Amino acid sequence: VTNGGKTTLAEKLKKMLPNCDIISQDDFFKPESEVETDERGFKLYDELDALYMDEMVKSIRNWMKSPASSGVVTEELQNTCDNLKNVEDIYILIVEGFLLYNYEKCKTCIFGKANIFLCSTRIYQPADTPGYFDGHVWPMYLKYKNELEENASNVVYLDGTKSQEELLSYVYSDIIQELKKLRE
Protein backbone atom coordinates (compact mmCIF):
# COMPACT_ATOMS: atom_id res chain seq x y z
CA VAL A 1 0.00 0.00 0.00
CA THR A 2 1.20 3.53 -0.60
CA ASN A 3 2.68 5.37 2.37
CA GLY A 4 3.53 2.10 4.11
CA GLY A 5 7.20 2.79 4.92
CA LYS A 6 9.04 1.62 1.79
CA THR A 7 10.93 4.88 1.22
CA THR A 8 11.83 5.21 4.90
CA LEU A 9 13.24 1.67 4.92
CA ALA A 10 15.15 2.25 1.67
CA GLU A 11 16.69 5.50 2.95
CA LYS A 12 17.83 3.85 6.18
CA LEU A 13 19.36 0.94 4.24
CA LYS A 14 21.18 3.37 1.95
CA LYS A 15 22.87 4.93 4.98
CA MET A 16 23.99 1.50 6.20
CA LEU A 17 25.21 -0.04 2.95
CA PRO A 18 28.28 0.80 0.89
CA ASN A 19 27.84 1.98 -2.70
CA CYS A 20 24.08 2.03 -2.40
CA ASP A 21 21.67 4.07 -4.46
CA ILE A 22 17.88 4.26 -4.60
CA ILE A 23 15.45 4.66 -7.46
CA SER A 24 12.04 5.50 -6.07
CA GLN A 25 8.81 5.06 -7.93
CA ASP A 26 7.57 8.23 -6.21
CA ASP A 27 9.88 10.22 -8.48
CA PHE A 28 7.94 9.08 -11.54
CA PHE A 29 4.40 10.22 -10.73
CA LYS A 30 2.71 12.16 -13.48
CA PRO A 31 1.61 15.72 -12.69
CA GLU A 32 -1.82 15.99 -11.09
CA SER A 33 -3.26 17.33 -14.35
CA GLU A 34 -2.38 14.04 -16.10
CA VAL A 35 -3.77 11.70 -13.42
CA GLU A 36 -7.27 10.39 -14.09
CA THR A 37 -10.15 11.13 -11.74
CA ASP A 38 -12.92 8.62 -11.04
CA GLU A 39 -16.66 9.29 -10.82
CA ARG A 40 -16.33 10.12 -7.10
CA GLY A 41 -13.73 12.78 -7.81
CA PHE A 42 -10.80 10.72 -6.48
CA LYS A 43 -7.46 11.13 -8.23
CA LEU A 44 -6.34 7.63 -9.25
CA TYR A 45 -2.74 7.77 -8.00
CA ASP A 46 -2.68 4.10 -6.99
CA GLU A 47 -2.69 2.82 -10.56
CA LEU A 48 0.08 2.24 -13.08
CA ASP A 49 -1.37 4.89 -15.40
CA ALA A 50 -0.50 7.56 -12.80
CA LEU A 51 3.23 6.88 -13.28
CA TYR A 52 5.85 7.35 -15.98
CA MET A 53 6.93 3.73 -15.67
CA ASP A 54 8.90 3.63 -18.95
CA GLU A 55 11.06 6.46 -17.60
CA MET A 56 11.61 4.53 -14.38
CA VAL A 57 12.69 1.41 -16.25
CA LYS A 58 15.04 3.56 -18.35
CA SER A 59 16.60 4.98 -15.15
CA ILE A 60 17.06 1.47 -13.74
CA ARG A 61 18.71 0.22 -16.93
CA ASN A 62 20.97 3.28 -17.12
CA TRP A 63 22.08 2.69 -13.53
CA MET A 64 22.75 -0.98 -14.27
CA LYS A 65 24.94 -0.09 -17.27
CA SER A 66 27.22 2.07 -15.18
CA PRO A 67 26.61 1.96 -11.42
CA ALA A 68 30.08 3.27 -10.59
CA SER A 69 29.37 6.51 -12.45
CA SER A 70 25.88 6.94 -11.01
CA GLY A 71 27.06 9.37 -8.37
CA VAL A 72 26.93 6.81 -5.56
CA VAL A 73 29.50 7.75 -2.95
CA THR A 74 31.01 4.96 -0.90
CA GLU A 75 29.77 5.37 2.67
CA GLU A 76 31.88 4.40 5.65
CA LEU A 77 31.29 0.67 5.95
CA GLN A 78 29.39 -0.77 8.86
CA ASN A 79 31.22 -3.26 11.11
CA THR A 80 29.13 -6.08 9.69
CA CYS A 81 30.45 -5.28 6.21
CA ASP A 82 34.10 -5.23 7.26
CA ASN A 83 34.55 -8.96 6.80
CA LEU A 84 33.34 -8.86 3.21
CA LYS A 85 36.21 -8.92 0.74
CA ASN A 86 36.23 -6.10 -1.80
CA VAL A 87 32.79 -4.91 -0.78
CA GLU A 88 33.69 -1.57 -2.34
CA ASP A 89 33.33 -3.06 -5.82
CA ILE A 90 29.75 -4.15 -5.21
CA TYR A 91 27.07 -1.65 -6.10
CA ILE A 92 23.61 -1.96 -4.66
CA LEU A 93 20.51 -0.47 -6.20
CA ILE A 94 17.36 -0.40 -4.14
CA VAL A 95 14.33 0.05 -6.36
CA GLU A 96 11.35 0.88 -4.24
CA GLY A 97 7.75 1.48 -5.05
CA PHE A 98 4.29 0.06 -4.73
CA LEU A 99 3.68 -1.21 -8.28
CA LEU A 100 7.11 -2.38 -9.45
CA TYR A 101 6.33 -5.98 -10.23
CA ASN A 102 2.99 -5.21 -11.80
CA TYR A 103 4.63 -3.40 -14.67
CA GLU A 104 5.71 -5.89 -17.33
CA LYS A 105 8.88 -4.05 -18.37
CA CYS A 106 10.11 -3.89 -14.76
CA LYS A 107 10.04 -7.66 -14.46
CA THR A 108 12.85 -7.91 -16.98
CA CYS A 109 15.19 -5.42 -15.34
CA ILE A 110 14.74 -5.80 -11.59
CA PHE A 111 16.74 -8.54 -9.94
CA GLY A 112 16.57 -9.67 -6.37
CA LYS A 113 16.22 -12.52 -4.01
CA ALA A 114 12.67 -11.69 -3.09
CA ASN A 115 9.85 -9.28 -3.49
CA ILE A 116 9.14 -7.58 -0.19
CA PHE A 117 5.78 -6.17 0.80
CA LEU A 118 5.60 -3.70 3.62
CA CYS A 119 2.18 -2.55 4.73
CA SER A 120 1.69 -0.20 7.61
CA THR A 121 -0.56 2.61 8.70
CA ARG A 122 -1.10 5.40 6.24
CA ILE A 123 -0.81 8.96 7.50
CA TYR A 124 -0.87 11.89 5.11
CA GLN A 125 -0.82 15.61 5.83
CA PRO A 126 -3.26 16.83 4.71
CA ALA A 127 -5.32 13.74 5.38
CA ASP A 128 -6.86 11.66 2.62
CA THR A 129 -10.26 12.76 1.37
CA PRO A 130 -12.94 10.83 3.31
CA GLY A 131 -13.58 7.50 1.59
CA TYR A 132 -10.42 7.66 -0.55
CA PHE A 133 -8.52 4.91 1.26
CA ASP A 134 -11.43 2.47 1.45
CA GLY A 135 -12.84 3.39 -1.96
CA HIS A 136 -9.65 3.51 -4.01
CA VAL A 137 -6.32 2.89 -2.24
CA TRP A 138 -7.14 -0.41 -0.54
CA PRO A 139 -8.99 -1.97 -3.50
CA MET A 140 -6.07 -1.07 -5.80
CA TYR A 141 -3.59 -2.50 -3.29
CA LEU A 142 -5.52 -5.79 -3.18
CA LYS A 143 -5.84 -5.90 -6.97
CA TYR A 144 -2.12 -5.43 -7.60
CA LYS A 145 -1.10 -7.66 -4.66
CA ASN A 146 -3.22 -10.50 -6.06
CA GLU A 147 -1.74 -9.91 -9.52
CA LEU A 148 1.77 -10.10 -8.10
CA GLU A 149 1.08 -13.27 -6.13
CA GLU A 150 -0.21 -14.96 -9.28
CA ASN A 151 2.92 -14.07 -11.25
CA ALA A 152 5.82 -13.97 -8.78
CA SER A 153 7.61 -16.41 -6.57
CA ASN A 154 9.62 -15.92 -3.41
CA VAL A 155 7.46 -13.14 -2.04
CA VAL A 156 8.52 -12.18 1.48
CA TYR A 157 6.01 -10.32 3.61
CA LEU A 158 7.24 -7.96 6.29
CA ASP A 159 5.02 -7.49 9.31
CA GLY A 160 4.05 -3.82 9.35
CA THR A 161 3.15 -4.10 13.02
CA LYS A 162 6.85 -4.60 13.86
CA SER A 163 8.97 -1.59 14.70
CA GLN A 164 10.94 0.17 11.98
CA GLU A 165 14.13 -0.97 13.71
CA GLU A 166 13.08 -4.64 13.61
CA LEU A 167 12.15 -4.43 9.94
CA LEU A 168 15.38 -2.61 9.10
CA SER A 169 17.44 -5.18 10.97
CA TYR A 170 15.72 -8.07 9.19
CA VAL A 171 16.17 -6.64 5.69
CA TYR A 172 19.72 -5.44 6.37
CA SER A 173 20.74 -8.88 7.66
CA ASP A 174 19.25 -10.47 4.56
CA ILE A 175 21.20 -8.12 2.29
CA ILE A 176 24.45 -8.81 4.17
CA GLN A 177 23.88 -12.55 3.73
CA GLU A 178 23.37 -12.05 0.00
CA LEU A 179 26.56 -9.96 -0.21
CA LYS A 180 28.48 -12.72 1.56
CA LYS A 181 27.16 -15.27 -0.96
CA LEU A 182 28.37 -13.02 -3.80
CA ARG A 183 31.83 -12.98 -2.27
CA GLU A 184 32.06 -16.78 -1.82
Automatic annotation (TrEMBL):
The keyword Membrane does not apply. The gene is Nmrk1. InterPro entries: P-loop_NTPase. PANTHER family: URIDINE KINASE (PTHR10285). This is NRK1 kinase. Keywords: Kinase, Transferase. The keyword Kinase applies. GO terms for molecular function: kinase activity.
